Amino acid sequence: MFALRRLAHAIWGDEVDRALRPVLIVSLAASTAGSTLWSFMAIWAVDELDAKAQLPLIFGVGALLAGVSGFLGGHLSDRFGRRRIILLGEGVMVAYPLLLLGVSGDKWAAIVALTLAGALGALGGSVAQAMVADLVPPEKHEPAYATVRVASNFGVIMGPPLGGALLIFGGWSSLFVTVAVLSAAAWLLAFRLLPRRGLYAPEGPPERSSIGVISRDLPFLLFLGSAVFAWLVYVAYEIVLPVSLVDGFGYQPAAWGFLVWINPLLVTLFQLRLTRATVRVPAASKLVVAMLTMGLPFLLLTKTHALLPVIVVVTVFVVGEMLWVPTSQAVIADLAPADVRGAYMGAFGSTAAIGFAIAPLVGFQVRNSFGDDATWVMFAFISVVAAALGGLACAGLTRRARTREAAAVLGA
Length: 412
Prior knowledge:
The protein is mostly helical. The chain has helices spanning 2-12, 21-38, 41-48, 55-80, 82-103, 107-115, 117-122, 125-135, 141-169, 171-193, 210-215, 218-248, 253-259, 262-277, 283-295, 307-335, 341-370, 372-411. Helix 5 runs antiparallel to helix 8 (125-135), helix 15 runs antiparallel to helix 18 (372-411) and helix 16 packs antiparallel against helix 17 (341-370).
């Protein structure tokens, strides 16, 4: 227990808001359970189901369903409460690995179950982000989102090795049953710890259409556009880069297994430190720098394929990602009217699904037609577009804040 306390102190320090601790614990537990499963689903589809040809369609349709589910979860949380929807989402994840176990002998039933994975997994994700804004004051949004992100990444560090060990010693049945048990533990923690209402939550459910509010919010729509392009860059790192390294640059598949660990490790160790160091930097500046830091280093891959430059690309990308994620979440929390905060977070979360649906399709098509160099030039340019749209959205947010301040002064 003492060792665990020392580890928690080394990662989070003493500045974690007490109201945020239940979300941290639940995020860590849910992330551990989820990453134990999700890391191996593509392998299961190929090796056990012989569904290699269907895999792009599975992921594409699943990503789009995840986008709908993420928005729906946020919308419902505005009306029925964050805690209820999070418990619903965690409860679904208890049953899902058992469903995979039950249909594993039927290829097409298993493919349908895999396609539903994104939708089921995304149901409560955006709701947790909305709950963070319900629990802490606006000036603490960015550090709070960084803190929760560290917990989630710590779970990602623990989950895949656990899943690999389960596959070695017990096979797929052992993996599915263990994930169900871990998900049940996450549900019990959520039931026991999550508050029914945060101090900064809206007084009651919304009395207006969230879609109507969102459709008239130009800064938010610009920010959604920026997020879509940002996710295209992120998914290029997640999915296109390993294929490029192995198939185009001659790396062994195991090499990516080591490189990919750089991301959660750096996030766990340095996310909070970077967020605290840049807390006074304007959001617009951080977002522009973040987008460019994520995408422009890909240009280095057009000059060299050596290991050290690849490590530099991955490391610099993670720095940009650490600037991007909590800053963007805090911007959305500030943009969103309190009564439809869940819907705003859900819409923002849906941009990830769009990125995961489009980036592999576009990335691999460009790569197959024009080669690796053209692919990385394209994604570098996309990062510039994301930076421009993010800067414009933040400018709109600044104008809105000034208008509110002027209205408050006149009202006084």
